[in-house]
Amino acid sequence: SRAIVLRDVSKKYDRGSYAVHRVSLAVEPGEFLVLLGPSGCGKSTVLRMIAGLEDVSEGELLLDGSYANDVPPRERDIAMVFQNFALYPSMTARDNIGFPLRLRDPGADHGLQVDATARMLAIEDLLDRFPSQLSGGERQRVAMGRAVSRRPSVFLLDEPLSSLDAKLRSHLRAEIARLTRELGVTTVYVTHDQSEAMSLGDRVAVLRDGVLQQVSPPRELYARP
Ligand code: ADP
Ligand code: ADP
């Protein structure tokens, strides 16, 4: 079944305005879908509803074929990475990456899994450092490692590169493409950057003022009759 399905999903805030209005969208297992649009168009809200960090006001969310509107975030097989990394400052990179594994299974030794994850992100040499001892790009690598260490089936990224400089952005963009392919994980990637969307997405979903405009492979995006 489809990994993620949104059926006429809306997010309505207190004063009755819609941040997201009747979005319908299906993401296939292993697909890399980019959600593209200007700031304030509702991209984060869509992502946060998929993660369970925001309630769905109207419509239906299905995860792996099951109705998921009411499933708590912890019970969704989903990991999310944010723009500002949000690493635990008092933990080394190793402990940050191992954190979700300890949460799930406190007694076990997660060393091998942490090492395998670090290898995938080429951060083996950084494992004993604290976040304050890492550069921005290194922090984002560790944050991605923490997100994928327990091998979630869905990986959500909310503007993960926007606080990095241009050179790092293009480098990490390639890393993200490689990592998600290697993991075979279903990915939804939020950005306002068109070239990022075009280079990363199997398909690109364009959002404007909370409404889905079109969903197409990058090549067909601006080639409509
Ligand atoms: P994007 O991620 O595309 O920048 P957001 O999803 O963050 O957009 O925001 C979409 C819209 O919802 C914006 O107009 C924003 O002001 C509004 N919004 C976000 N969170 C809230 C909230 N808690 N209450 C009211 N409005 C909100
Ligand atoms: P992003 O980092 O994805 O742009 P932000 O959290 O910065 O998301 O919020 C995007 C927009 O949503 C901003 O304009 C912000 O003012 C607005 N917003 C966020 N939270 C609320 C809220 N609780 N109430 C009203 N507006 C909000």
UniProtKB/TrEMBL annotation:
Keyword ATP-binding among record annotations: yes
GO molecular function annotations of the record: ATP binding
Source superkingdom: Bacteria
Domain ABC transporter: 4-225
Record has Membrane as a keyword: no
Key words of the record: ATP-binding, Nucleotide-binding, Transport
Protein name: ABC transporter ATP-binding protein
